[in-house]
Design goal:
The protein is of the alpha/beta class. The protein has 3 domains: 213 residues, NAD(P)-binding Rossmann-like Domain (Rossmann fold), CATH 3.40.50.720; 77 residues, N-(1-d-carboxylethyl)-l-norvaline Dehydrogenase, domain 2 (Orthogonal Bundle), CATH 1.10.1040.10; 147 residues, Rossmann fold. The chain is built from 18 helices and 14 strands. It binds uridine-5'-diphosphate-glucuronic acid (UGA).
Length: 472
């Protein structure tokens, strides 16, 4: 099928490349000339596993890039809208880019088209897109508007797209649903997964994925409600972690006990320094606004957001309790990205924490395997950047772990201890076993688990004679 994808951000670019891999002819439309030039040169603008391979595989054949929306619409049966929906100051989604694309599409409709929302948008957006297209000259029956939300995570976007837990098609007419079913047919009938060149199957993937058909409004709500629920899960476990800290329990054990209940599940139960990124913070505020506009005060979401913000304050208090005063302290920081596996620093808890610590007078030397360049811009070069975790730790009063990169979980602890001025690690992502850290000579702070230091390991003197354990 001939498909246009408008917007070459995370969602648009990944969707375009994956549709091409499913066998469709795709044109990705953007008005950012620099980005188009880079894509046409074969560059991949984001750090995303398998994306460079897919771009290389299909660029210039099944996948092209253009700034000509009108021609792309005329040439395509389906137009996916994947432009940005940034938050306004009030926290609502700014839909002006979506509206302007809808106007552009209207002028080019010359045969039946399916216009598909791929960006995360509030409920009612499909209605508005329909109205705007009609107002701008298209006729009833010449087009349908559908919602086909995307559930991909940054860092694993390509595999999330091709091996999803489900595909949601929100279509209000059968004609429109049929077009979307045809687009996803290679996944739903399983033929894509039989191809020798298919992107490798990740663990846990269910193939073929189920396809869920709903109304457009339900699909819009599915996207917001999914993100809100996942954020709620994170805030819930962060709140439980705070109680664990107060009573001396271990949140990891609590998570194991909760997560093995199949109704709850173990995923997205990792406590830390709060969620960040370009989706959860924005989508929660947008969902709350949508609910309010519909007459429902979704106070649960207020609390999810509040716990998330408090989680960062708690971490600062932890740094203070480890170092007493902060002015003039030198801190090594591991991680700048909002999570591991990406170079994205939007709403990164690591960046927000660094700014707070700088405001308290700390000197920061940070290392991130991918987000260094982007962080330099965001922090106006006000921190030092190291080339490795060990260099970040060099001479520091303490080491802070702020992003869950895999490489931070397997550091050479002897080398790390030797680099630090004091062997203090404050781990906002619970990457290490506290006992092992103390055994290696560290005072180790983490989230929701007791703080431990080498002194605490000395076993109490037992003066009783050793007894043989009798087993019956
Ligand atoms: C999120 C959703 O997971 C995707 O399903 C969705 O498609 C996407 O938003 C979107 O709406 O576009 P993403 O923002 O890429 O994906 O990142 P996540 O992996 O969800 O992580 C979000 C934040 O939560 C990160 O800061 C991460 O460190 C944090 N997190 C995640 C935790 O603190 N604990 C966890 O257990 C999981």
């Amino acid at each position: 099928m001939k498909i246009a994808v408008v917007g070459s951000g995370y969602v648009g670019l990944v969707a375009g490349a994956c549709f091409a891999d499913l066998g469709h002819d795709v044109v990705v439309v953007d008005n950012d000339q620099q980005k188009l030039a880079a894509l046409n040169r074969g560059e991949c603008p984001i750090h995303e596993n398998f994306l460079p391979e897919l771009l290389h595989r299909h660029r210039g054949t099944r996948l092209t890039f253009s700034d000509d929306l009108q021609s792309a619409v005329r040439a395509s049966a389906a137009i996916f809208v994947a432009v940005g929906t940034p938050p306004t100051e009030q926290g609502e989604a700014d839909l002006s880019y979506v509206e302007s694309v809808a106007r552009g599409i209207a002028g080019a409709i010359d045969s039946y088209k399916v216009v598909v929302e791929k960006s995360t948008v509030p409920v009612y957006t499909s209605d508005w897109v329909r109205k705007i297209i009609l107002r701008n000259g298209a006729e009833h029956g010449e087009f349908d508007v559908a919602s086909n939300p995307e559930f991909l995570r940054e860092g694993t976007a390509v595999t999330d797209f091709l091996y999803p837990d489900r595909i949601v098609i929100g279509a209000d007419t059968e004609r429109c649903a049929a077009v979307l079913r045809e687009i996803y047919a290679p996944m739903v009938d399983g033929t894509y997964y039989l191809r020798p060149d298919a992107i490798p199957r990740p663990d846990r993937a269910q193939i073929p994925p189920p396809l869920i058909t709903t109304s457009a409004k339900s699909a819009e709500l599915i996207k917001h409600a999914s993100n809100a629920f996942l954020a709620m899960k994170i805030s819930f476990i962060n709140a439980v972690a705070s109680i664990c800290e107060s009573v001396g329990a271990n949140v990891q054990q609590v998570c194991q006990g909760i997560g093995t209940d199949s109704r709850i599940g173990p995923r997205f139960l990792n406590p830390g320094i709060g969620y960040g990124g370009s989706c959860f913070p924005k989508d929660l505020m947008a969902f709350r606004s949508v609910a309010r506009e519909c007459g429902y005060e979704f106070r649960l979401l207020d609390e999810v957001i509040r716990i998330n913000e408090e989680q960062r304050q708690r971490f600062i208090r932890k740094v203070r309790s480890a170092l007493w005063t902060l002015r003039g302290k030198k801190l090594g920081v591991l991680g700048l990205a909002f999570k591991g596996g990406t170079d994205d620093i939007r709403e990164s808890p690591a960046i927000l924490l660094i700014k707070s610590l700088q405001a308290e007078g700390c000197e920061i030397c940070a290392y991130d395997p991918a987000a260094q360049e982007r962080a330099k811009e965001a922090l106006n070069s006000s921190i030092k950047h190291a080339e490795s975790a060990y260099e970040a730790a060099e001479g520091a009063d303490a080491l802070l772990i702020l992003t869950e990169w895999e490489e931070f979980a397997s550091l050479d602890l002897d080398r790390l201890r030797a680099a630090l001025k004091y062997p203090i690690v404050i781990d906002g992502r619970n990457l290490y076993d506290p006992h092992a850290m103390a055994m290696n000579g560290f005072t180790y702070y983490s989230v929701g688990r007791p703080t431990i230091s080498p002194e605490l390991l000395t076993p109490p003197k037992d003066t009783r004679p050793a007894r043989k354990i009798s087993r019956s």
